[in-house]
Design goal:
Blueprint (H helix, E strand, L loop, with lengths): L4 H10 L25 E2 H10 L5 H13 L19 E3 L4 H5 L10 E3 L5 H11 L5 H17 L42 E2 H13 L3 H14 L11 E2 L5 E2 L5 H8 L4 H13 L1 E2 L2 E2 L21 H13 L3 H18 L26 H12 L12
Antiparallel strand pairs: 1-2, 2-3, 4-5, 5-6, 7-8
Helix pairs in contact: 1-13, 2-3, 2-5, 2-13, 5-6, 5-7, 7-8, 7-9, 9-11, 11-12, 11-13
Length: about 375
């Protein structure tokens, strides 16, 4: 069986580097024709380490060590470096396309870029699981709490040129195809942006480290700002004018996983997540969205790592039947595809999934999701029975 815990671990072990962390994807090769992300990506490495924590704890420890040693020390607007911030990506030799788009590549060809709004929160979450409380954790907490004190929400301004404009997991450039954070009309959401998933990870990180008052203050701010659109589901984002973006999006699963939403918001959020469901898992956005396409990278495809959060959230909130459908959908899709891609398309007619051309075929957090789903690990509780 391809979509098994054992096979997922074989992919994970293949992606382990000499430092012990996971590259985001495999390098280009016979079974990975794309391989764009064969280096350290903060968000990806941390989520994959959390997914495999019960069975590969040494990967989690190595990931904390690697990212802690690369933690921001100074203010550098060009790279988005800030004291305490955890990097987005780190290249010994940056790919040519970074140079072509005027990213801040060093003269020796290296690139350390910090344009991620949630890597620091994820670092804090994983550090808490490992009971690590060192100077890097203190600095990361200072960065997160300072960000919240300044804005009330975790926001990013982004780079229109020379870097990422959107800096949540739907990261992208300021161009026609680069953004997955859009209004229902298809228009770009303009910075400063507060995306839903970043608030969820920040809330959970604060609670993990005992900052309950800060966490509840953030939850109150989210409850006010992310429901200004008047819909029962939380917004995808809040823009620089304070407007809630009413796009129905899969980040709802991460919000539920973190327990960020107020109790009265949970049932409508579950219903909204159900509306995104396909035979193969929840889509990133609803087919009613102007930018939707089943194979659009951030605008319609199914992402297994995010399905893992949704599965854990649904199970946590008592929606066990829907959680089981999410789990089965992802494992069935991976079994059909015979690879562990970063995302796949779920056709509108219910036909078999396929991998979009730009997507990688062997992605760490997909292999991690397969292992965790098959093993019953949701990133928060003890190991349970598989789905």
């Amino acid at each position: 069986m391809y979509a098994s815990a054992e096979n997922a671990l074989s992919v994970i072990d293949r992606l382990v580097t000499g430092e012990g962390f996971l590259t985001a994807s495999a390098a280009p090769g016979a079974d990975e024709p794309v391989g764009r992300y064969a280096t350290l990506f903060g968000r990806d490495a941390l989520i994959a380490a959390l997914q495999t924590l019960p069975v590969r704890p040494h990967i989690a420890t190595a990931t904390i060590d690697a990212l802690g040693s690369r933690q921001g020390r100074r203010l550098v607007p060009e790279t988005a470096e800030e004291p305490g911030k955890i990097p987005h990506e780190d290249w010994e030799v940056a790919p040519q396309w970074h140079r072509d788009r005027a990213w801040p590549v060093e003269p020796d060809g290296s690139l350390r870029y910090f344009g991620s709004v949630d890597s620091t929160s994820l670092y804090l979450i994983l550090a808490a699981r490992l009971k690590i409380t060192d100077a890097t954790v203190t600095a990361a907490l200072h960065w997160l709490r300072s960000s919240l004190a300044a804005n009330g929400l975790v926001t990013y301004a982004g780079h229109r040129e020379g870097g990422l404009y959107h800096q949540g997991w739907r990261d992208g450039l300021w161009d026609k195809e680069g953004s997955g954070v859009r209004w229902p009309s298809g228009a770009q959401v303009e910075a400063p942006v507060a995306v839903a998933s970043a608030q969820a990870f920040a809330y959970h990180a604060l609670r993990c480290h005992g900052f309950e008052a800060d966490a509840e203050q953030l939850a109150d701010a989210v409850d006010e700002a992310f429901f200004r659109h008047g819909q029962p589901w939380p917004a995808l984002a809040v823009d620089g004018h304070g407007r809630a973006v009413p796009t129905k999006a899969s980040e709802i699963g991460i919000m539920l996983w973190s327990d960020l939403l107020k109790p009265a918001r949970v049932e409508p959020a579950v219903s909204a997540l159900q509306a995104l469901m396909t035979r193969w898992g929840p889509r990133t956005i609803s087919p009613e969205h102007a930018s939707f396409s089943p194979d659009a990278y951030h605008l319609g495809a199914v992402w297994p790592f995010e399905c893992w959060f949704a599965w854990g959230a649904l199970r946590r909130h008592g929606a066990t039947e829907l959680a089981g459908r999410v789990c089965k959908g992802v494992l069935d899709a991976v079994e059909h595809l015979r690879c562990m891609p970063e995302c796949y398309a779920a056709p509108l007619d219910g036909g078999p999934p396929f991998v979009p051309g730009r997507a990688t075929r062997l992605q760490a957090w997909t292999a991690g999701a397969v292992w965790a789903l098959a093993s019953g690990w949701d990133g928060r509780s003890g190991l349970a029975s598989g789905c």
